[in-house]
Amino acid sequence: MKQIFRTRGICAQAIAVDVDETTGIINEVQFAGGCNGNTQGVAALVKGRKADEVIPLIENINCGGKGTSCPAQLAAALKEVLANK
Questions:
Q1: Which residues, listed in sequence order, are joined to residue 25 by a DSSP beta bridge?
Q2: Is residue 28 helix, strand or coil?
Q3: Any idea where the domains of the chain sit in the sequence?
Q4: Which of 46, 61, 66, 78 has the fewest Cβ atoms surrounding its Cβ within 10 A?
Q5: Residue-wise pLDDT tens digits, 30-57
Q6: CATH class of segment(s) 2-83
Protein backbone atom coordinates (compact mmCIF):
# COMPACT_ATOMS: atom_id res chain seq x y z
CA MET A 1 0.00 0.00 0.00
CA LYS A 2 1.44 3.33 -1.07
CA GLN A 3 1.37 6.18 1.47
CA ILE A 4 2.65 9.74 1.25
CA PHE A 5 4.37 11.42 4.18
CA ARG A 6 5.09 15.10 4.64
CA THR A 7 8.65 15.63 5.80
CA ARG A 8 10.03 18.06 8.37
CA GLY A 9 13.40 19.77 8.45
CA ILE A 10 14.77 18.55 5.09
CA CYS A 11 14.87 19.72 1.48
CA ALA A 12 12.51 16.99 0.23
CA GLN A 13 8.88 17.98 0.78
CA ALA A 14 7.37 14.48 0.87
CA ILE A 15 8.17 10.79 0.66
CA ALA A 16 5.94 8.22 -1.05
CA VAL A 17 6.44 4.79 0.52
CA ASP A 18 5.04 1.46 -0.66
CA VAL A 19 5.47 -1.36 1.86
CA ASP A 20 3.93 -4.81 1.48
CA GLU A 21 1.43 -5.10 4.33
CA THR A 22 2.00 -8.84 4.80
CA THR A 23 5.79 -9.12 4.59
CA GLY A 24 6.91 -5.62 5.59
CA ILE A 25 9.14 -5.49 2.51
CA ILE A 26 9.69 -2.09 0.93
CA ASN A 27 8.45 -2.15 -2.67
CA GLU A 28 9.19 1.45 -3.60
CA VAL A 29 10.31 4.80 -2.18
CA GLN A 30 10.05 8.14 -4.00
CA PHE A 31 11.21 11.48 -2.61
CA ALA A 32 9.59 14.73 -3.81
CA GLY A 33 12.46 17.20 -3.89
CA GLY A 34 15.77 16.94 -2.12
CA CYS A 35 19.14 16.02 -3.61
CA ASN A 36 18.04 13.87 -6.52
CA GLY A 37 21.07 11.59 -6.67
CA ASN A 38 21.12 11.00 -2.93
CA THR A 39 17.41 10.35 -2.61
CA GLN A 40 17.48 7.96 -5.60
CA GLY A 41 20.40 6.16 -3.97
CA VAL A 42 18.62 5.80 -0.64
CA ALA A 43 15.47 4.57 -2.40
CA ALA A 44 17.44 1.97 -4.39
CA LEU A 45 19.28 0.71 -1.31
CA VAL A 46 16.14 0.11 0.75
CA LYS A 47 14.01 -1.43 -2.01
CA GLY A 48 13.40 -5.13 -1.39
CA ARG A 49 14.47 -4.95 2.26
CA LYS A 50 12.28 -5.34 5.34
CA ALA A 51 11.24 -1.99 6.79
CA ASP A 52 12.03 -3.06 10.36
CA GLU A 53 15.61 -3.91 9.31
CA VAL A 54 16.14 -0.60 7.50
CA ILE A 55 14.83 1.71 10.24
CA PRO A 56 17.68 1.29 12.77
CA LEU A 57 20.26 1.75 10.01
CA ILE A 58 19.00 5.19 8.92
CA GLU A 59 16.94 6.73 11.72
CA ASN A 60 19.75 8.75 13.35
CA ILE A 61 21.44 10.17 10.26
CA ASN A 62 21.93 13.93 10.54
CA CYS A 63 22.30 16.21 7.51
CA GLY A 64 24.21 19.44 8.00
CA GLY A 65 23.34 19.81 11.68
CA LYS A 66 19.59 19.83 10.98
CA GLY A 67 18.94 17.04 13.48
CA THR A 68 17.38 14.97 10.71
CA SER A 69 17.97 13.95 7.10
CA CYS A 70 16.21 12.38 4.15
CA PRO A 71 17.10 8.88 5.41
CA ALA A 72 15.96 9.76 8.95
CA GLN A 73 12.66 11.09 7.62
CA LEU A 74 12.27 7.87 5.60
CA ALA A 75 12.79 5.91 8.84
CA ALA A 76 10.05 7.97 10.50
CA ALA A 77 7.72 7.28 7.56
CA LEU A 78 8.48 3.54 7.75
CA LYS A 79 7.80 3.52 11.49
CA GLU A 80 4.41 5.10 10.82
CA VAL A 81 3.64 2.51 8.14
CA LEU A 82 4.51 -0.34 10.51
CA ALA A 83 2.49 1.20 13.34
CA ASN A 84 -0.59 1.41 11.10
CA LYS A 85 -0.42 -2.19 9.82
A1: 50
A2: strand
A3: 2-83
A4: 66
A5: 999 999 999 999 999 999 999 999 999 9
A6: alpha beta
